[in-house]
């Protein structure tokens, strides 16, 4: 089918129309291109399609740097020039604002994190007859492909793939499948290994030797497919991450912003969203505080009441804040089941909301009708952002003062946004 691509969809696929006007979702096609596409199965209101040939290429089409592009499920737009990607991601934030009831707000193009800067990786592992396969999931598949290079993750994470492959081949605890989640901390790589069989004493010895040989201070382990709290299988030294100069001890697999550059950009946008004038000892509220990525920058501006639902993260934040003498009160609270109510928000100069991917619909509705003068919403999901903005658009007096797009997921379809909502004209 010969079609012209009209736009790029939320997943990074080109969108065209078939003869009946229904959408065709075509991976690796770009806006303005005339392409040959092979229609496939139903997908939503349209159909998935495969790209057979590009007849008229876009001037923004570039050669993807990675030989795995197209096979790997991680990157969606390596074939698109960076300025075009930055503009598209900013447009996605602007569109979310419009759908949320705040149209016509300009968003500057998102500045991407540089290549090889991602400090988190979750590798899938399979034992096959010809050896161990370790890498990211293949595009559209639950199965991994054998990873050789990556232009997204930090080279120190990629350097672990080869040694992991060798070690896992001799690990009886890996029968058929597992995974390895690695955070690159200030203390070095922090590995959380999940296998489909329990560790034997010999396995633990091998893991300790592997950690020593590869500069890994801690290896945690849990059973694949369970929600068991990971146990420490090997530890040779302290584990810590520095967040705005404060040493924090994360739990295995703890959430960190994907790149240091992305973390810095988000923190800067949050601080820029605070009121220019605040009382002498302002009270700031932070919801979904995590380990303190934004808590400690906020503490330089006022007293922070930080709320976090994950017990390990809340405990790590509380301990780190106490040791650093930061003006932070860390409270463990399941904000999905127990959002903050209007009386608890009284007296706050500003509130920072950084929810998980699903957003914070109930909390947003409460904030919109509260007396909080300013809400800074940090979002990693434009769809959830649009939904959560609706109560603010319907309530009197709210406006979007600023919106910043942050691209720390290089070549993916993901984009972060920092949106400052304020009351008044």
TrEMBL record:
<dbReference type="Pfam" id="PF01938">
    <property type="entry name" value="TRAM"/>
</dbReference>
<dbReference type="InterPro" id="IPR029063">
    <property type="entry name" value="SAM-dependent_MTases_sf"/>
</dbReference>
<keyword id="KW-0408">Iron</keyword>
<keyword id="KW-0489">Methyltransferase</keyword>
<protein>
    <submittedName>
        <fullName>TRAM domain-containing protein</fullName>
    </submittedName>
</protein>
<keyword id="KW-0004">4Fe-4S</keyword>
<feature type="binding site">
    <location>
        <position position="308"/>
    </location>
    <ligand>
        <name>S-adenosyl-L-methionine</name>
    </ligand>
</feature>
<dbReference type="InterPro" id="IPR012340">
    <property type="entry name" value="NA-bd_OB-fold"/>
</dbReference>
<comment type="similarity">
    <text>Belongs to the class I-like SAM-binding methyltransferase superfamily. RNA M5U methyltransferase family.</text>
</comment>
<keyword id="KW-0411">Iron-sulfur</keyword>
<keyword id="KW-0808">Transferase</keyword>
<keyword id="KW-0479">Metal-binding</keyword>
<feature type="binding site">
    <location>
        <position position="257"/>
    </location>
    <ligand>
        <name>S-adenosyl-L-methionine</name>
    </ligand>
</feature>
<dbReference type="InterPro" id="IPR002792">
    <property type="entry name" value="TRAM_dom"/>
</dbReference>
<feature type="binding site">
    <location>
        <position position="354"/>
    </location>
    <ligand>
        <name>S-adenosyl-L-methionine</name>
    </ligand>
</feature>
<dbReference type="Pfam" id="PF05958">
    <property type="entry name" value="tRNA_U5-meth_tr"/>
</dbReference>
<keyword id="KW-0949">S-adenosyl-L-methionine</keyword>
<dbReference type="InterPro" id="IPR010280">
    <property type="entry name" value="U5_MeTrfase_fam"/>
</dbReference>
<feature type="active site" description="Nucleophile">
    <location>
        <position position="380"/>
    </location>
</feature>
<feature type="domain" description="TRAM">
    <location>
        <begin position="1"/>
        <end position="53"/>
    </location>
</feature>
């Amino acid at each position: 089918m010969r079609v012209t691509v009209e736009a790029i969809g939320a997943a990074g696929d080109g969108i065209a129309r078939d003869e009946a006007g229904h959408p065709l979702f075509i991976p690796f096609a770009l806006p303005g291109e005339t392409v040959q596409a092979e229609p496939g199965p139903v997908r939503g209101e349209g159909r998935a399609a495969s790209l057979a040939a590009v007849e008229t290429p876009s001037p923004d089409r570039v050669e993807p740097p990675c030989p795995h592009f197209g096979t790997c499920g991680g990157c969606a737009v390596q074939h698109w020039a960076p300025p075009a990607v930055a503009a598209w991601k900013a447009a996605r934030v602007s569109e979310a604002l419009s759908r949320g009831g705040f149209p016509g707000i300009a968003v500057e193009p998102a500045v991407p994190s540089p290549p090889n800067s991602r400090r988190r990786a979750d590798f899938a592992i399979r034992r096959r007859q010809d050896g161990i396969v370790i890498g990211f999931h293949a595009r559209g598949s639950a199965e991994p492909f054998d990873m050789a290079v990556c232009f997204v993750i930090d080279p120190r994470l990629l350097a672990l793939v080869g040694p992991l492959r060798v070690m896992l081949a001799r690990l009886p605890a890996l029968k058929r499948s597992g995974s390895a989640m690695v955070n690159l901390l200030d203390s070095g790589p922090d590995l959380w290994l999940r296998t489909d069989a329990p560790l034997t004493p010999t396995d633990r010895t091998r893991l300790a030797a592997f950690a020593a040989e590869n500069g890994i201070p801690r290896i945690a382990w849990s059973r694949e497919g369970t929600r068991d709290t990971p146990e420490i299988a090997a530890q040779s030294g302290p584990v810590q991450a520095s967040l705005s100069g404060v040493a924090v001890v994360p739990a295995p697999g703890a959430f960190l912003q994907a790149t240091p550059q992305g973390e810095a950009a988000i923190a800067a946008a949050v601080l820029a969203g605070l009121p220019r004038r605040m009382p002498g000892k302002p009270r700031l509220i932070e919801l979904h505080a995590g380990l303190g990525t934004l808590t400690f920058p906020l503490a330089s501006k006022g007293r922070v009441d930080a709320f976090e639902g994950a017990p390990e993260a809340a405990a790590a934040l509380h301990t780190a804040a106490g040791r650093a003498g930061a003006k932070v009160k860390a409270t463990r609270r399941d904000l999905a089941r127990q959002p903050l109510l209007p009386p608890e928000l009284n007296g706050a100069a500003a509130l920072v909301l950084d929810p998980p991917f699903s957003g914070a619909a109930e909390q947003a509705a409460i904030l919109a009708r509260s007396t909080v003068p300013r809400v800074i919403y940090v979002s990693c999901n434009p769809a959830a952002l649009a939904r959560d903005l609706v109560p603010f658009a319907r309530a009197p007096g709210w406006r979007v003062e600023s919106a910043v797009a942050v691209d720390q997921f290089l070549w993916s379809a993901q984009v972060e946004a920092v949106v400052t909502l304020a009351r008044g004209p």
